[in-house]
Design goal:
Helix 1 packs antiparallel against helix 2 and helix 4 runs antiparallel to helix 5. This protein has 6 helices and 2 strands. A two-stranded antiparallel sheet has the order 1-2. The chain has one domain. Helix content is 67%, strand content 4%. By secondary structure, the protein is mainly alpha-helical. The longest helix is centred in the first third of the chain and has 37 residues.
Length: 178
């Protein structure tokens, strides 16, 4: 199981790097568009479509599993903090089943939508250009599917009580500065 967690962590790291690259490319693309628009009076065609359909979708959905791996999603523990620690542990463990069901449902639904967009060769017309957008619909099921795998894996680890192999270390701000 530990090796499976390491492999899952490597896949999560890869998609997180892709997300970071998408954000960097988005920044460069928008900067080039602004420079082109105001300096050369010639903006880059399709910038809004590429930014909103490609870069933003990658940046939003690919790192979902990274946050789950690090247990960094937003949580509100108003009532659960009042419970004994062993109850908190088991409640958190069994709530993973609900999370897994939700992300499995999202994966299946968004996969169906992605296939439908692929079949019709979905595109957006911006100005005189037609930009294919059907590939962007696959980012959602990839991100949600990986999130499902992480949550399911964490539930199995909870049931078995073994080491997960997931990279759960969080980077501290002082480590980033050094």
């Amino acid at each position: 199981m530990f090796k499976m967690g390491r492999v899952l962590s490597k896949l999560i790291d890869l998609l997180t790097i892709v997300s970071g690259l998408a954000i960097a490319l988005m920044m460069l693309h928008v900067t080039a568009d602004v420079i082109g628009r105001f300096v050369f009076r010639s903006p880059i065609p399709g910038t809004m479509t590429v930014v909103s359909y490609y870069y933003m979708a990658i940046a939003a959905f690919m790192p979902l599993a990274f946050a789950e791996q690090k247990s960094a999603h937003i949580s509100v523990e108003i009532m659960t903090d009042l419970l004994p620690s062993y109850v908190q542990k088991h409640l958190a463990g069994w709530l993973l089943v609900i999370s897994a069901a939700v992300f499995l449902g999202l994966t299946i639904r968004t996969w169906g939508e992605a296939i439908a967009k692929w079949e019709i060769n979905a595109s957006v017309v911006q100005g005189v250009d037609s930009i294919l957008i059907w590939p962007t619909y696959f980012f959602l099921p990839i991100g949600c599917g990986l999130m499902f795998l992480v949550v399911l894996y964490k539930f199995i680890i909870y049931l078995l009580g073994v080491d997960s192999g997931l990279d759960t270390e969080r980077a501290r701000a002082d480590e980033l500065i050094d």
